[in-house]
Amino acid sequence: MTDQQALLATTTTDVKILIADKVAELIAAGNPNPTVGLVPTMGALHDGHGALFKQARAENDLVIASIFVNPLQFDQPEDFEHYPRTLDADLELVTRYGGDIVFAPATEHMYPGFPDAPQIRVSAGQMGRVFEGASRPGHFDGVCTVVAKLWNILMPPAPAVFRSYFGQKDAQQLAIVTRMAQDLNIDVEIRPVSLVRAPSGLALSSRNVRLDDHGMEKALGLSQALHYLADLATRGERLDISAARDIVRAQENVELDYLEIVDPTTLQPLTAQQLAMPLEREALALVAAWVPPVRLIDNMLLAPQATN
């Protein structure tokens, strides 16, 4: 809305008042249907988050960032305790990218009585138990619970339109929260933000900083495998998933966790019969691998051959 410092709220009451006031200002200024965009984060923000804020700023009258380190997403308590908290720097970055309001609640405010609470949690179902969920049991249940709470807290009053922004980089999370909004009839538009790649093709990730030059080179096997599948799809050829896996495995000391081709909305793997035929509709290739000393994920949408 303005070039001013983003306004900080740490309680549900305060942030609801801020949102209602801003929406009222927009309506009074002659905007009958204001748009409000939410960028949910766990803080420790960096310029890699910029694409989320840029798209939210371009598409909305009011931009909200949530900053909350969600304990329900962590497998190990020590990982939660050691997660960086950089609120002052986060506020500066949100302001720089045009955010208007920052909601940064404490754990005891979001989950009164934690760790015994919340008693009622949102299940991600089978979609949350495969791929990344298989190695991190309960992770996506934690994601769904906190995202549902954030939507309920930050949803603006009518007639404002509410949107929530998620990166395509975490394709499984994007599919799960999209399905949650549909299944639970939550009045929010899910807005995917395209995955950003380095000129080399490597998907941008905060984990990349832990790779040396040799590791960076080996990590390119993930994106090369995905591009190989994407090229097959656009040429109308059989999707040779075994050959794609071999591209990743050919990198020295790289351990492939999974490489699968799935339906983008259900995360159901394509059948052997579907893989043996030209792609009929958009699919999603998912890959995860250990590139010492980090585990990397990547994905790519596969488009079928264009028809005249």
Tell me what the structure shows.
By secondary structure, the chain is α/β, with parallel strands linked by helices. It folds into 2 domains: 187 residues, Rossmann fold; 97 residues, 2-Layer Sandwich (Pantoate--beta-alanine Ligase, Chain: A,domain 2), CATH 3.30.1300. 37% of the residues lie in helices and 19% in strands. It is built from 11 helices and 9 strands. The strands form 2 sheets. The chain has a 6-stranded parallel beta sheet with strand order 1-4-3-2-5-6, sandwiched between helices. A 3-stranded antiparallel beta sheet has the order 7-8-9, covered by helices on one side. Strand 8 and strand 9 form a beta hairpin. Helix 7 packs across helix 8. The longest helix has 22 residues. The protein is globular, with a radius of gyration of 21 Å. The chain starts with 6 loop residues before the first strand and ends in a 6-residue tail after the last strand. The mean pLDDT is 95. One of its GO terms (cellular component) is cytosol. Homodimer. Pathway: Cofactor biosynthesis; (R)-pantothenate biosynthesis; (R)-pantothenate from (R)-pantoate and beta-alanine: step 1/1. GO terms for molecular function: ATP binding; pantoate-beta-alanine ligase activity. InterPro entries: Pantoate_ligase, Pantoate_ligase_C, Rossmann-like_a/b/a_fold.
